Amino acid sequence: MTAEAIQDKLKVIVQPYVNHQENFDNLTSKSDFINDLQINSANLVDVVLDVEDEFDIRIENDDMEKMISVEATVNVIQKKLKSK
Amino acid sequence: MKTQRVVITGLGVVASNAVGVSPFTDAIKSGKSGIQFHSNLKELKFSCQIGGIPEISQELMDTYFTALEQRGLLATGLIYGGIAGQEAWADAGLDITEEVDPDSGIIFGTGVLGVDKLREAFHRIDQKQVRRLGSTSVLQTMASGISAFLGGKLGCGNQVTTNSSACTTGTEALLMGYDRISSGKAKRMLVGSCSDSGPYVWGGFDALRILPHQYNDRPEEASKPMSESAAGFVPSSGAGAMLIESLESALEREAPIYAEVLGGCINSGGQREQGSMTAPNSSAVKSCISKALVEAGVNSEDIDLINAHLTATAMDATEVQNWSEALQKSGKNFPYINSLKSHVGHALAAAGSVELVSSILELSQGFIFPNLNCDTIHPNILKIVDKEKIPRTLLKKNLNIIAKASFGFGDVNACVILKKYSNGDNSA
After folding, report:
1. Which of A3, B174, B227, B366 is the one with CA 20 to 30 A from A46?
2. Boundaries of each Carrier domain copy (chain A) (predicted)?
3. What are the pLDDT digits (tens) for B346-382?
4. CA distance to B151, B200, B295, B367, B421, per residue, from B7 (Å)
5. Does B428 fall in a domain?
6. CB within 8 Å: A43 and B135
7. Tens of pLDDT along B331-347?
8. φ, ψ (nearest 5 deg) of residue A31
9. Whole-model pTM?
10. What is the domain-level CATH number for residue A12?
């Protein structure tokens, strides 16, 4: 799956947790979950669970800690999909 | 420091027979039962397959909870309390702002919160899936989840806490909030209580064999406080909420006042004498009622109506006897007495607050709601109270003072005295 396709799916996943609509509308690969999208840090675990369900992958703690921006999250998902 | 008078300026309610103050007022006036048969209780082989569960529409959910808050939300008590608490806040004419309000606090009690969420969590944990619990497992299952939720919604900056004293919880919450305002530590307190619904809350009571099993085919007739055929309490759920504030604060905001809280008493029977984990010590009950009158500065002649605890068990006659001895009143001199449990069942930790809302409505609108399912009053009760004092139909009546009491497991008691608010009147 291309990075663009993953990012499109990720955008749908994070939408319910976003607290900054304008930055969400202008989401890029550089968008940071907490600083730009203002997602409550407790909800980051929900984003990870929703990613696991959507892509049918399992994300361990060390990868989870990296998933704080769109780009880093797309990278983790791509890596997991390749090793499936 | 000068003691502050405390008044009630906002109400919210989620009951098995109606949700919202206005529909609830109509329901208790017309004697609408909230008790229904629930097929899941039958499938689970409960003896008592009936109960009271409030009907919450999606529209109501969308009014009080964001889409994100609704995700994975299984804690029914949190839903009921969240709705009732926010309703009372808005009913008092208070806004939700970006600023924290250091003068407003919350005491919102519960028994156990989020049992359905706990069940989901236990299953996940046992399946070695603890990592998949999600972010709201704690908020939905900590007892103080309800006060924490409301505190964030409303921006309260005073004390925000949860009390728990079984079926006394709601009445205790009101008195705890009253103390905080009368002593000048807060201007406004949102007080109330909530209780989850369903088999995982009610199962333990079914096991104690204290719920009626004879009415599964006619649920509306099952809850019969003071009746000769009372067969046990009908399990229920819901939430009640009251916004109370100093008279000074209410007058300053020009907020309409429902009633005044004159005072009350909280005590325990210590599980001594006839008291136990599940039965009250009558001496302590009488002492609680007497001290509430003293605290409120009223005489027993002043009590127009008792909103009793009366659950529809063999203890009903004992409770009436305790009221009679504490007030030194009997026969035709006994005040009117009613029990909302005949309408909504026993809402457990939510009982006190839901019933208080009914009392406050009776005071402010001048009526006494009917006792349902009480065609034949228990003969031991008729020995104490004249039957005219146990209304079975709606009575229009100008009321001045109501005594409300709740008693709970652990031999704990609370009694509060409410008075119709009259402008400029500084005495009871």
Report:
1. A3
2. 4-81
3. 999 999 999 999 999 999 999 999 999 999 999 999 9
4. 21, 37, 16, 20, 8
5. no
6. yes
7. 999 999 999 999 999 99
8. -60, 135
9. 0.96
10. 1.10.1200.10
